[in-house]
Design a protein that fits this description.
The protein is an alpha+beta fold. It has ten helices and 44 strands. It has a six-stranded antiparallel beta sheet. Strands 1-28-27-26 form a four-stranded antiparallel beta sheet, with no helix packed on it. It has a four-stranded antiparallel beta sheet with strand order 2-3-4-5, with no helix packed on it. The chain is elongated. The two termini are 56 Å apart. The relative contact order is 0.05.
Length: 854
């Protein structure tokens, strides 16, 4: 049990299934008893009034002094001097359409049960409007009397001078009622408007203002003065409660409880202090002060916690049995400082803050001599048992895991022909773009709900529906997924591969995924066209076999059945590629006006030629090679185009940041001028603000266009990189492991981030390769890795790419020597200045480093 709890001094529950709110609690000597002991008064929304005189340590039936059924819900209770010919305390009860004043009198009994109490109606005021809350006080500076001010739901405040009605006024700019409190010193009222501002209205201003609502037409005449607030403070949130406090040794202050803050204001509206709350408060109550001028108040939270503050300092925290909606401080039975709390279900508790001593005494532990030899022996036996059980249990778990695994199997059927009728309507371009509908079916060992089927595509390929949810039983009907090419985009495909995945959750809650690769036909991207004799970019592929009929290699393009030594391909978004077979030699030429467009056709040609001669009975193994010069110039042009767009994008981002800083500075200056009580000229600040905003919007449009251009440049660079990798492999006859290293170093996957782009990542990877397996000497191994930030130009990157290609063509091997590889499979590198990586390392020291190539 925690020590920090609100200790129960007395508690009870008022009624069953009744509702209470903030105004339903009042503490006062309402029966005017000579001993001046406070009574606890509660009223529910069901119209039941109850008065308690607590007698600790627990609730007794005689503690309930009075229980009285009224005909209307009780919204608020207040005690005060409300009858003109008497100085006694009376009880004011606010109903939705009535304000009633009652006297509570004791009738001395002649039996052992004691006195009984009677409720007598002194007078009442019928209200024309539905009321929300009311406040009492000596309005106008009268002494010895308490008047009423009732706030209605439509913003009217009605003033009653005890038995008589005085006047009514509408608050300006009203939308919803807020808390209302009276300030005796300045004879004014404080409330919170729907604009989240705390406003103060003088009683004299309310009395002299016009009676009706403010007119919206200039022609309408309204009698009296226009009602304006004496001061207003914007707190930025709605107010839940307001209290006016005037304690000894402390200045008079106005406390406002917001949704996430508490504010302390002076009587002129200036902020004394503000406390930001890290919880959601339900109610609060200021109850005293300290000798040094600090104000004490308590806040109840929605987490059933009572917090006591001195100004902004938390002094105490205690747990409550429930969430209070109203708090008061009372003096009961000569005990000062009791906390009276009421929750929404009617639980009333009189508690104090303190700690109760724990009566539990721990028994003494049994002492015995320790035999360390027996302990060691027992420990060894237990460790042996743990080791054996862990090994056997892991085997058993793995065995059962694979035997009883809930799984889904996926089957994908790719039709041999394209769809007869394309789903594309041809609005994007004149010609009709073909589509391909594949069938995907699932088989499962049990029932699965919400299986997410996703078709993964890359531009220009798209799909009719990327993601869909299905429910699986043992078998489902095949679902169709239709692929087509977006011919409005200028991007080119890199390969014909795409993926389909299905994600699901087992009954044990384990997420799993099943996926399958889909190889789309080449006719999805290219259509046949007439071969082009003259082209800008040309690539020659050598083989060791006589030329074959190209329509045998690309049978889907053989409708015309020409001579078979020339075939043309045209992408649906524009570029053309021509494949020519030599009549006198064993060579083939691919040519196009677009360099990156050669990537897909060249890759398909090499793969299909290898597949065509895979079962060849010729003793000489089929070989395909590239002996020409590498197209580095064209590749470097793609790098420069991509890098220049990155630089342009970075420059635009910097300009937007500068304009945004200027925009915020102008806003701060305008806000300062608007908040000034004596407005000064704007000096064209509004014109500069509009101009800056227009510039920011223009830069944003340019950034959007630059991002689209960067995506197209990245696609072209990706295709060009894929083509260069293929030519390097054919030129140097690289095996699979060597090609994986090369592809990881010069990656065809171009991903651009503002912090790290393709250029700096590729430069770092190639530099690592040049200083390890492609290093010529120890001097090359000492080359420092370039920093992973955007460079000023691409000269170093192009130099390193050319150096890597040169060393590969001169016999360099993409394999690490056995003495250069450490135990973790990474090369051991000598760095001339390791302080650039670890400051603690001395110079000329060898350390182990590796790079993960994705």
């Amino acid at each position: 049990m925690s020590l920090f709890k609100a200790r129960d001094w007395w508690s009870t529950t008022a009624g069953d299934n009744e509702e209470y709110d903030t105004g339903c609690l009042c503490v006062a000597n309402i029966d005017n008893s000579p001993d001046n002991v406070d009574k606890v008064i509660v009223g529910s929304y069901f119209g039941i009034l109850r008065i308690y005189s607590p007698q600790p340590p627990k609730y007794h039936p005689e503690d309930l002094m009075l229980e009285y059924q009224l005909q209307q819900p009780i919204l608020q209770l207040e005690a005060g001097k409300f009858v003109s010919e008497s100085d006694a305390l009376y009880l004011a009860i606010l109903h939705p359409r009535k304000l009633s004043i009652y006297s509570i009198t004791a009738i001395t009994g002649s039996v052992e049960h004691g006195s009984q109490y009677a409720v007598k109606l002194a007078y009442e005021h019928l209200l024309e409007r539905t009321s929300c809350n009311f406040v009492v006080g000596s309005f106008g500076g009268v002494k010895g009397k308490d008047f009423f001010c009732v706030q209605s739901m439509d913003g009217m405040v009605s003033f009653f001078e005890q038995e008589s009605f005085a006047f009514g006024r509408f608050l300006p700019g009203f939308l919803l009622p807020g808390p209302l409190k009276y300030i005796p010193k300045s004879d004014s009222f404080v409330t919170c408007s729907t604009s989240r501002s705390v406003e103060c209205y003088k009683y004299q201003s309310l009395a002299q203002a016009s009676e009706g609502r403010e007119s919206t037409k200039l022609s309408d005449k309204v009698s009296g003065k226009r009602l304006t607030s004496d001061w207003s403070v914007n707190i930025g949130e709605c107010a839940k409660e307001i209290y006016m406090v005037s304690f000894q040794n402390a200045p008079s202050s106005i406390f406002v409880l917001g949704e996430r803050s508490i504010f302390c204001l002076r009587e002129n509206g200036n902020v004394r202090f503000m406390k930001k709350l890290e919880y959601d408060p339900s109610t609060f109550y200021p109850y005293g002060s300290t000798p040094d001028g600090g104000i004490l108040y308590m806040i109840a939270t929605h987490t059933d916690t009572l917090l006591v503050y001195k100004d902004i300092t938390l002094c105490w925290a205690a747990q409550m049995p429930s969430m209070p909606v109203a708090l008061r401080a009372a003096e009961l039975k000569d005990l000062k400082g009791l906390i009276i709390s009421l929750d929404q279900n009617g639980r009333i508790q009189a508690s104090y803050l303190g700690t109760d001593p724990s009566m539990f005494i721990a028994p003494p532990t049994e002492s015995r001599e320790i035999n360390y030899e027996e302990l060691d022996k027992e420990m060894k036996e237990l460790q042996k048992l743990i080791k054996e059980s862990s090994v056997s249990s892991s085997k058993f778990v793995l065995k059962n895991l694979f035997q009883n695994e809930e799984s889904i199997t996926m089957q994908v059927h790719i039709p041999p022909q394209l769809d007869q009728t394309s789903i594309i309507d041809g609005n994007k371009k004149d010609e009709d773009v073909p589509s391909l509908t594949i069938k995907v079916s699932f088989k499962s060992s049990s029932t699965f709900n919400n299986v997410v089927v996703t078709a993964h595509t890359e531009k220009p390929l798209t799909v009719n529906q990327h993601t869909r949810k299905i429910s699986l039983e043992s078998y489902t009907r095949p679902m169709g997924i239709t692929y087509y090419v977006d011919n409005s985009d200028s991007m080119l495909p890199i390969n014909l591969t795409t993926w389909i995945s299905g994600s699901y959750v087992t009954s044990q809650g384990a997420p799993k995924t099943v996926q399958q690769q889909v190889n789309l036909p080449m006719k999805m991207y290219c259509k046949p066209c007439q071969p082009v004799k003259v082209a800008t970019h040309k690539i020659t592929i050598d083989t060791n076999r006589n030329p074959v009929n190209l329509y045998d290699i690309f049978p889907e393009y053989g409708e015309s059945k020409g001579p078979g030594n020339a075939i043309g391909f045209q992408y649906y978004n524009g570029p053309k590629v021509t494949l020519l077979a030599s009549k006198t030699s064993q060579r083939y030429r691919l040519q196009s006006d677009n360099f990156e467009a050669l990537a897909l056709v060249t890759r398909q040609f090499v793969e299909r030629m290898k597949a065509n001669f895979a079962n060849d009975k010729n003793p000489d193994k089929f070989k395909v090679s590239f002996t020409g010069s590498l197209p580095l110039h064209e590749f470097f042009e793609l790098i420069d185009a991509h890098f220049n767009i990155r630089l342009e994008q970075e420059e635009l981002h910097e300009k937007v940041q500068q304009e945004a800083e200027q925009y915020r500075a102008i806003q701060r200056r305008l806000l300062t001028r608007f908040k000034d009580k004596t407005p000064s000229p704007l000096l064209n600040l509004d014109v500069i603000l509009d101009s800056t905003h227009a510039t920011i919007m223009e830069l944003a449009d340019k950034i959007k266009k630059t991002e689209e251009a960067l995506s197209r440049a990245a696609n072209a660079l990706s295709c060009g990189t894929s083509l260069l990798l293929l030519l390097l492999r054919l030129n140097m006859n690289l095996n699979d492991s060597e090609f994986r290293i090369l592809e990881a170093t010069l990656s065809p996957i171009v991903i651009d981030l503002r912090d790290q782009g393709w250029e700096e990542l590729t430069d770092a990877a190639i530099t690592h390769l040049l200083r390890t397996c492609l290093a010529k000497s120890a001097k090359d191994q000492a080359v420092n890795l370039p920093p992973l930030k955007i460079p000023s130009d691409t000269q170093k990157l192009k130099k390193h790419i050319a150096m890597m290609c040169d060393r590969l063509t001169k016999g360099g091997k993409l394999a690490f020597e056995s003495n250069d590889v450490t135990t973790n499979g990474l090369p051991e590198v000598v760095v001339s200045d390791p302080k650039q990586i670890l400051d603690d390392y001395p110079s000329k020291e060898t350390f182990k480093a590796g790079i993960i190539l994705a």
